[in-house]
Specification:
By secondary structure, the chain is of the alpha/beta class. It contains nine helices and 15 strands. Helix 6 runs parallel beside helix 8 and helix 7 packs across helix 8. The protein binds flavin-adenine dinucleotide (FAD).
Length: 353
């Protein structure tokens, strides 16, 4: 007997034979776009039936698109804008980039990442490998036309440990210096760790350092800025955002605007390490804010509809666990056991790099 995948493959072949191509596919529940089979004159080389089939296969399983474009055959997008996010007096360079996706099949959902392949070759003369970046826009893009994807990229600059010579990261420098109008090779999307629950009543706790804000910007736009018939956010969104200096608070105006507009549903708590002091007189990191709000956070994480997301610098989980451990210990609970349960329930999500 024909299994569903074989049947689906056959349907796709029939669509292709009839001169059509599958433009998008999503699960019926909570759908925002229908399946569209549109007749086209002749398939272009980048949209052969084989490729269309591969695309559909990757999307069909759980409605989450993955690896629609792979490094061997990336999508070539165009940079529409590239803006500095760090204000005067801040540290380093972080850029907000918007890429045009029109003319392809690349789509994504909030919390996923895309790969960028820098132009040029590495020291061995081989093409550069891709680097992953969290998507900073919702599936509808910053222009709300489903045709763009945005990133929030920090330029990596460090002193070489042996020579002391300043080194600039390959891909982050390529992106931060990119001129609008330039072409860019994009792969993906990838990632299922940081997806938002469909439940509009869920509580969403977000803990970000630096560019870790990227997926949370996408969540917040989806929750508060966009209007959806099947997702009207009514829960509590609480963002803890750690940066070094006030001018390093990325998307500050946007975040504070949302807080003013939605004071009952959106809480914003900064930890500005080089400016603020914690209760012990030390630097204010996210974990100090967690300790300050431990009782409320502990109450929230115990609710079945609360999801916690951590994104940003590798190593930031340590401090968060410390804060949560002391909150849990007050109630005689071992945090690592409790956290294991949350992870098993897919309510504790971490993406650090
Ligand atoms: C899932 C995921 C999401 C990500 N999202 C984002 C994002 O939203 N924004 C963002 O800016 N980045 C993000 N990153 C990081 C990004 O993928 C790149 O790693 C980053 O931009 C650096 O790449 P590069 O090509 O500029 O650096 P490279 O040229 O690849 O250099 C990186 C290498 O430099 C060396 N190095 C780095 N720092 C030092 C140091 N202090 N001392 C000595 N050696 C050092 C290390 O060997 C390191 O591997 C993400 C990573 C992952 C895995």
């Amino acid at each position: 007997m024909e299994n569903p995948l074989q049947k689906f493959k056959k349907d796709l072949q029939n669509i292709a034979k009839a001169g059509g191509r599958l433009l998008s596919i999503e699960v019926p529940e909570n759908e925002e776009k229908p399946i569209i089979a549109e007749p086209v004159a002749a398939p272009s080389p980048s949209k052969t039936p084989e490729k269309t089939e591969a695309v559909a296969r990757k999307v069909a399983k759980d409605g989450i698109p993955v690896n629609l474009y792979r490094p061997k055959d990336p999508f070539v997008g165009k940079c529409l804008s590239n803006e500095e996010l760090v204000r005067k007096g801040g540290e380093g360079t972080v850029r907000h980039l918007v890429f045009d996706l029109s003319g392809g099949d690349l789509h994504y959902v909030e919390g996923q990442s895309i790969g960028i392949i820098p132009a040029g070759t590495d020291d061995a003369g081989k093409p550069h490998k891709l680097r992953l970046y969290s998507i900073a826009s919702t599936r509808h893009g910053d222009h709300l036309d489903d045709k763009t994807v945005s990133l929030c990229v920090r330029q990596l600059v460090y002193k070489h440990p042996d020579t002391g010579v300043e080194v600039e990261g390959v891909c982050s420098t390529y992106l931060c210096n990119m001129e609008p109008g330039s072409e860019v090779k994009i792969t993906g999307p990838v990632g299922k760790e940081m997806l938002l629950p469909d439940d509009p009543n869920a509580n969403i706790i977000m803990m970000a350092t630096g560019t870790g804000i990227a997926p949370f910007r996408a969540y917040l736009w989806r929750m508060f800025k966009e209007k959806h018939e099947n997702y009207q956010f009514k829960g509590l969104a609480w963002l803890f955002f750690g940066v070094a200096y006030t001018p390093n608070i990325l998307y500050k105006a946007e975040l504070e605007d949302l807080q003013r507009q939605f004071p009952d549903n959106f809480r914003l708590t900064y930890a500005i390490s080089r400016e603020q002091k914690n209760v012990d007189g030390g630097k204010m990191y996210i974990q100090s804010r967690i300790a300050e709000n431990a009782d409320k956070l502990w109450e929230l994480v115990q609710k079945d509809n609360t999801h916690t997301y951590i994104c940003g610098l590798k190593g930031m989980e340590g401090g968060i666990d410390e804060g949560m451990s002391s909150a849990a210990a007050k109630h005689g609970v071992d945090w690592s056991d409790y956290q294991r349960g949350l992870k098993k329930d897919h309510r504790w999500h971490v993406e650090t790099y």
